[in-house]
Amino acid sequence: MADTNAETSPAKAKVAVFVSGTGTNMAALLYASRLPGAVYEIVLVAANDADAGGLQIAATEGVATFALSHKGMSRADHDAAMEKAALEAGAQYIALAGYMRILSPGFVQRWEGRMLNIHPSLLPKYTGLDTHARAIEAEDAHGGVSVHLVTEELDAGEILGQIAVAITPGDTPDTLAARVRLAEHQLYPRVLGDYVSRGSDPQHLLERLRALALALPQTHERESHGAPGFRVGSEKSGKYFAHFSDRHHGTPHISLLVKCSGMDELEHLVETQPEAYHKPAYYGASGWIGIILNRPGLEWEAVDEWLQRSWRQVAPKSVTRLLDAADEF
Ligand code: GRF
After folding, report:
1. CA 117, CA 191: separation in Å to the nearest integer?
2. What whole-number distance in Å separates Cα of residue 206 and Cα of residue 198?
3. Other CB atoms closer than 10 Å to residue 293's CB: what's the count?
4. Is ligand 1 within 6 A of the CB of residue 269?
């Protein structure tokens, strides 16, 4: 079906999938990406084995492929060549799908937060190999599958989603693996889609913001004009230092409103960095600046600094003095 909204729908996240074998998870990701409303597209399927079945499927479906055997190459060189192919295809994310390689630390670091893996167990149980045999051997009630972020430690990054699969009496590792595989094909496209969308998901952005705001001393959350707000001081006489604004008054922005030093700074930032700052309706007139959260390249450290600045402007001196004293040590 033609995408009649091509001009207005947001750009899709570009994903490279790395495989070593049959590539059924890659196929699940690929076919899900062809549903209307899909939020990612597969720009490359790459393998460390030219005979990997996944490459064939991708080629048949008109997806670019890349194959390079790791034999005779150093780990870092092989990773770098795979990475180069992904970057040349425009990939913003890498999805490992049965990619049977340990990755070099530099490669993992460069893609931190942008590389996912699917693992056939309910992590943190059974990292590594033979997961189904180990679950059966342990007489677990369930096996299952996890999708997680890739970090340097094997199968240990943040878990983004899981499905439990009941183990039946008489299950062998193969029969269990076959049912887990069905669950894998449901899980991976959903989790990948949610993950690449989270930078524009108001719920996710609010959760991150809330964690930072409430980590500051003597803060609490209080709704203001129907939107989440954060105050410093007592429940009774506290003052707002941050507001969360979800596309209010016709703007496309999901933003954090904080106090800046005054109108000069506000006007200057909005004029010179319109992709990062905006002048919010009503609040702008009294020196609140909008920090745009739903944009590529957002840095949460910078958001945290703005929260701290605003908190300092509003907090009672008795509280900021405590923090100043602590900072001196
Ligand atoms: C899957 O079981 C996956 O969980 C694991 O490797 C297998 C890949 O299978 N990481 P396929 O190539 O996607 O069919």
Report:
1. 11
2. 11
3. 24
4. no
Residue with the smallest CA separation from ligand 1 atom 5 is: 98
Rounded to 5°, the CA angle 311-313-314 comes to: 65
Work out the number of other CB atoms within 10 angstroms of the CB of residue 48.
21
User: What does pTM read for this prediction?
Assistant: 0.82
Q: Residue 20: which of 57, 48, 60, 59 has the closest Cα? A: 48
Q: Whose CA is closest to 190, among 18, 52, 37?
A: 37
Pairing of strands 115-119, 142-149: antiparallel
- Give, for 81, the enclosing helix (H) or strand (E): helix 75-88
pLDDT of residue 5: 45
Q: Compute the average pLDDT of residues 191-198.
A: 95
Q: How many CB atoms lie within 10 A of CB 244?
A: 23
Residue 80 Cα, ligand 1 centroid: separation in angstroms?
23
Residue 16 has pLDDT above 90, yes or no: yes
Q: Both tokens of residue 81?
A: 């060549």
Q: Which atom of ligand 1 is nearest to the CA of 181?
A: 2
Instruction: Say whether 220 is catalytic.
Output: no
At residue 272, φ and ψ (nearest 5 deg) are: -85, -25
pLDDT value for 327 = 72
Partners of residue 145 on adjacent β-strands = 163
CA 138 from centroid of its chain's CA atoms: 33
Residue 92 half-sphere exposure, CB side, CA atoms within 13 Å? 13
Answer whether 140's CB lies under 8 Å from 165's CB: no
